[in-house]
Amino acid sequence: MALKNLPREEPVMQGNAACPGCPATLALRTVLKALGKKTVMVVPACCTAVIQSLYPYTSFDIPIMNIAFEAAAAGASGIEAALRKQGKEDINVLAWAGDGGTYDIGLQALSGAVERGTNFIYICYNNQIYSNTGIQRSGATPISAWTTTTVGGKTEFHKEMGEIIQAHHPPYAAQASISEPEDLYKKVKKAKDIKGPKYIEILAPCPPGWRFSMDKTVDMGKLAIETGAWALWEYENDELVFNGKSKLILEEKIKPKPIEEWLKYQGRFKHLFVPKRNEEQLKRIQDHNDAQWKRYRKKYL
Ligand SMILES: Cc1ncc(C[n+]2csc(CCOP(=O)(O)OP(=O)(O)O)c2C)c(N)n1
Ligand code: SF4
pLDDT by residue (tens digit) across 141-196? Predict the structure, then answer.
């Protein structure tokens, strides 16, 4: 569906408390347009708990339950069970959490809910940091990124959450990006019509956390895909298919841009370029990215 044909109704209303250029609100608008108003949302501690506005106000046009940081999937499981018991099975249950609440503290609850076959959609907006509490590193933070807890640059590579989810064999999983709203809309629409646990992860470049100008959020998402730092894919019935530019990179129909084309616009990687280029670390990051795509080709081509 073309962007101009997306539903006009705005589920995220004025008066929200997001930063200018916030990727989470971009994603939320698209996701909630795809799901419609018959949706109950569970939000753990994260930026979205603040974005939705400060109590007693709300700027989201659907019911929301806020819950403890680790408990998004557990809360959604309870809501799904309660709705089922009442015979209300046409209501979407959406758990919506950041990468901290997904890759790290909420992983156990998420794993349990997916393993139990819970009929819900779990969405992780991945801004690669704990942004709500002032930019700490998470399991999704890429190597070398500055955060307040990795002041010299993170020394570990991020974990592959998509592969952890695939190991649970859910009926549907996907990776998307705020920079590709039509693709995101399509994936959420598809997930909506599938019974069982659905996992969608959305790359969410965060201006204050990644240190780039607030008008460049979409560009940062596009560059992540074009350099291969992020991949678009869909996983259904144990089959994984890449899509968009990621498919072309996988099939070697286009060459990804060097990863520094994505890194160099983000202040969190500034120390790799100033006062002088850290060639060794830049090569290490590029090699890791190349190796990842080599592994994807071996597995999925
Ligand atoms: C058990 C617990 N530990 C720590 C916190 C403090 N806390 C609230 S939100 C947050 C970070 C959330 O990060 P993420 O899930 O990535 O979402 P984002 O803030 O980036 O939107 C932290 C550490 C908490 N609320 N509960
Ligand atoms: S810190 Fe980032 S994710 Fe959080 S509200 Fe601001 S722009 Fe959005």
Answer: 999 999 999 999 999 999 999 999 999 999 999 999 999 999 999 999 999 999 99
The phi and psi torsions of 68 (rounded to 5 degrees) equal -60, 155
Per-residue CA distances from 173 to 2, 54, 232, 233, 268 (Å): 22, 32, 11, 8, 29
| Rounded mean pLDDT, 111-126 | 98
Tokens of 131: 């942004």
Percentage above 90 pLDDT, the chain: 95
CATH topology of domain 3-300: Rossmann fold (3.40.50)
Pocket residue to mutate for ligand 1, from 25, 129, 133, most atoms within 8 A of Cβ: 133
Q: What spacing in Å lies between the alpha carbon of 100 and ligand 2's midpoint?
A: 13
pTM of the full structure:
0.98
Whether 209 is in the pocket of ligand 2, judged by its Cβ within 6 Å, is yes
Q: Is 208 in the pocket of ligand 2 (CB under 6 A)?
A: yes
Residues in the chain: 301
Encoded tokens for 31: 């996701």
In the chain, what are the domain boundaries? 3-300
- CA 53, 96, 263, 134 dihedral sign is positive
